[in-house]
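Friendly challenge for the regulars: who can give me the C-alpha cells for this chain first? No prize, just bragging rights.
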Amino acid sequence: MDPFLQAALDEARQGYAEGGIPIGSVIVHKGKIIGRGHNRRVQKGSAILHGEMDAFENAGRQPASVYRECVLYTTLSPCSMCSGAIALYGIPKVIVGENQTFMGEEEWLRSKGVEVEVVDNQDCIDLMNEFIAAKPQLWNEDIGV
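First reply, four minutes later:
Bragging rights claimed.
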C-alpha cells in the first residue's frame, strides 16, 4: 500500500479506537506529510472535524503556494464540506481510499480541476463497513441523514 494512504488509514483506525468515526487523511507536500488528521466529531463534540478538515487544521496556516503543490490522501470520498476546503486551498490532487460506502463530491472536485484518483483499497472498505454495521446512527449523523 502507498505509505501516505497507509498513514491516512492509521489515522482512521486511531479515530475508531477513540470511539469516533474511522476516516483519516494526510496532506503531503513534496513527499512529506505536513498535516494529518482523523474524524474527531465525536471526540471533540465538533460539527466540522472530518478527517480532511482535521488534517487541514493540523497542517496549520500554509501559504496558497504550498497547498497548490500538495496531494491530499483520504480513506473515504470527501463530502461537500471537505471538498470545498480542498477547492478553496487549491489542492490539485486527491487520492481516495474508497468510495463504495460513501460517494462524496468527486465529480464536483473534477469540475474544479482537481485530479481525483480512487484506489478501492480493501482495508478502507472493510473498516468503514465494520463501523457502519456497528454504529449506523452515528454514521447517519456524520453524513447528515
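The CA atoms of residues 12 and 24 lie 4 Å apart. Helices lie at 3-17, 41-44, 51-59, 64-67, 80-88, 106-111, 122-134, 136-142. Your move, everyone else.
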